[in-house]
Design a protein that fits this description.
- It is a single chain.
- The chain is of the alpha+beta class.
- It has three domains: 154 residues, no CATH class; 149 residues, no CATH class; 167 residues.
- 54% of the residues lie in helices and 15% in strands.
- The chain has 19 helices and twelve strands.
- The strands form two sheets. Strands 4, 5, 6, 7, 8, 9, 10, 11 and 12 form a nine-stranded antiparallel β-sheet that branches. Strands 1-2-3 form a three-stranded antiparallel β-sheet, with helices on one face.
- A hairpin with a 2-residue loop joins β1 and β2.
- The radius of gyration is 28 Å and the shape is flat.
- The mean pLDDT is 85.
Length: 507
């Protein structure tokens, strides 16, 4: 059992850690309150605390000398933390905090960490995903759920047509928006699956199966929900997809997911452990028998914890210095002044809906349609972000295009006007469009989304700036027109547009 002095040292270390990591922790808490996908985050620390309390007897009985390698774990966590703090990548700070707690456990209770490791890992499920990953995942889940939902509707011989995320029932149209992607079920159910797998006293493969099963269960049940709404709308009108009933259906589906999860465990035990009891399955065992196998009495060395406290104090001071750094915000000329005359190309500015602007989180944007003689128009779109430190970042067209009902028929990376671009052919029914897009900033033009994220991190770290932009050019491919002709039209437009654009996206 830990002495009062040891408990005091551990408490000081935890308090220092919370103060040091507060920027990342506060961001996570903020997203718990603002995004329903992560609202379960409030419960995760409480569940972790409960599990640790439930295991306190075993922890106290198995406390051993400090494991000095825990200091190395803490140092690694703090390195990740500093990188996250400098670049304002909150996810690095948050994951680093979990790693730090594991290190503190190793230093304070030694071998007893085997009983704290899983509860601490549970905290990972309270960490929100980075926005750009969340957007990609949401888009993919929307498409999958829409497709499976339509398949369910067709089982009732209801005529239905799927166009992207829009379910066309003839009289009524239903759009599977981001909120209906299934993320609101996926993250809480994965958390529940981890907790259940932890208490599930069975072979590792069974536990893994239970946890991994949460993903297909969520997708299938969310698809069923979408399909059920479609059937009800077809029979009783659009009110079935609105208001309280729509939200209540969500709760029913989540509870159904939980029931299916426990039914899976019951089935596994019936097939593989016919003589097992529910008490043994869920870890309701006689703790005293386990305690008898362990004898405490080891004298704990306080030096490792004192070293950790000193390291945390130094890190806290260094963090205060970092927080005084002001991000470099380069001067930006508003796109309001972007010319509507580019050689023979004449254009007209357009505007986005205020809700769209808020959702995209951009600082400034350019949306204009340019036409040359009688040729089909070229749509020119630039989304500029003064800072991407707070999670705002350009939405990749690869994510947005399918959501508008367009199908990506072909995507390749090519050289155009001396730099890489993504060339995308999209189709909707008989319509066909050609899309060029890339990411631009700091004197770089990058086509790959992930390489762009890497440079964003590097520039945040070494240049203290995170500005950047997405550039997209779209043109309609006429019924009798070849793709090569459409390519030449875009290239001709870019020859005139890009020199002008560089004045707005400074190095």
């Amino acid at each position: 059992m830990l002495s009062i002095k040891q408990i005091s040292l551990l408490s000081v270390a935890i308090i220092l850690a919370v103060i040091t990591y507060w920027s990342g922790l506060a961001e996570a808490i903020s997203r718990w309150g603002s995004q329903e996908e992560y609202s379960h985050g409030y419960l995760i620390p409480l569940v972790t605390a409960y599990i640790l309390w439930e295991k306190k007897g075993l922890i106290q009985a198995t406390i051993g000398p400090p494991i000095w390698s825990g200091i190395l774990v803490i140092l690694l966590a703090l390195v990740v933390f500093i990188v996250g703090e400098i670049s304002a990548l909150f996810i690095l700070i948050q994951y680093s905090f979990v790693l730090l707690l594991i290190g503190l456990s190793l230093v304070s209770i030694g071998r007893a960490t085997k009983y704290t490791f899983a509860p601490i890992l549970l905290l990972l499920f309270a960490i929100p995903l980075p926005f750009f990953i969340e957007v990609i995942l949401t888009a993919k889940l929307q498409l999958i759920s829409s497709s499976l939902g339509v398949s369910f509707i067709r089982l009732f011989d209801i005529p239905v047509y799927l166009e992207g995320n829009v379910i066309d029932l003839g009289v009524f149209k239903l759009q599977v928006v981001e909120a209906c992607s299934g993320l609101r079920y996926l993250f809480p159910l994965m958390s529940l699956g981890f907790i259940v797998a932890y208490f599930y006293q069975a072979a590792f493969w069974k536990r893994s199966l239970v946890f991994l099963a949460t993903i297909p269960i969520t997708i299938l049940m969310n698809s069923f929900r979408i399909g059920a709404i479609g059937v009800m709308v077809d029979n009783w009108g659009i009110s079935m997809a609105e208001g309280f009933l729509h939200d209540f259906e969500g709760w029913i589906i989540f509870m159904a997911c939980a029931v299916i999860l426990f039914a899976l465990i019951w089935t596994l035990e019936k097939l593989t452990n016919k003589h097992g009891s529910l008490a043994s399955v869920f870890g309701v065992v006689d703790v005293s028998s386990e305690l008898s196998q362990h004898v405490s009495g080891n004298r704990i060395n306080n030096k490792p914890m004192i070293i950790v406290i000193v390291i945390l104090a130094i890190t806290l001071v260094f963090t205060q210095f970092l927080n005084k750094r002001t991000e470099v915000l380069p001067g930006h000329v508003s796109f309001v002044n972007f010319t509507t005359s580019l050689g023979q190309w004449q254009g007209q500015h357009d505007k986005l809906d205020k809700g769209v602007i808020k959702q995209l989180g951009m600082t400034d944007y350019l949306l204009a349609n340019y036409r040359k003689e009688q040729l089909p128009p070229v749509n020119f779109y630039v989304a500029y972000y003064e800072t991407q430190r707070k999670g705002a970042s350009p939405h990749s067209p690869r994510v947005c295009i399918p959501g508008g009902g367009w199908e990506i028929a072909d995507l390749e990376r090519i050289e155009a006007n001396g730099h890489p671009v993504n060339r995308v052919i999209i189709k909707k029914g008989d319509q066909q469009q050609l899309v060029y897009y890339w990411f631009q900033g700091h004197g770089r033009i990058i086509a790959n989304e992930y390489i762009n994220k890497w440079y964003l991190f590097v520039d945040a770290l070494f240049k203290n700036r995170t500005d950047g932009a997405l550039v997209r050019v779209v043109t309609l491919v006429g019924p009798q027109e070849s793709l090569e002709t459409a390519d030449q039209r875009i290239l001709d437009f870019l020859t005139h547009a890009e020199p002008e654009l560089t004045q707005y996206l400074l190095n």
